[in-house]
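Late entry, evening session. Most of the bench is empty. Finally got around to the prediction I had been postponing all week. Sequence below, unchanged from the version circulated by S.P.
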Amino acid sequence: MSGDAQLMLLIAGMHLLGLGCVAVLLIPALRDTPPPPRRSDSGGDDGWGRGPGGSPAPPDPSGGGLPLPDADQARIRIREHGRLGDRLPSRQRRPAREPERSPVRLPSH
């Protein structure tokens, strides 16, 4: 047998092996649905637990909201349309600096 024929036979064999593996994996997946898991009537502790235990307790209504002991009220409250800049007092401008004095030459005697 020549080298080309052996190579083609090897490639065909690998393809057939791959198709066999795919068939082995697909046949169980395409079968009918599996039966549902058997329910245990013994009630023993098999590690799965019983799920969530009812609804959580309602929050305590006497809290009255979030405690904000260090909160300061805003300076301005806007309840209608308008700009915040129109409501705030204008900022004071910095005083203008005096211009730097330039050195003056004194006449020499």
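Two things to note before I forget:
The chain has a mean pLDDT of 79.
The helical segments are 3-30, 84-87.
Will write this up properly tomorrow.
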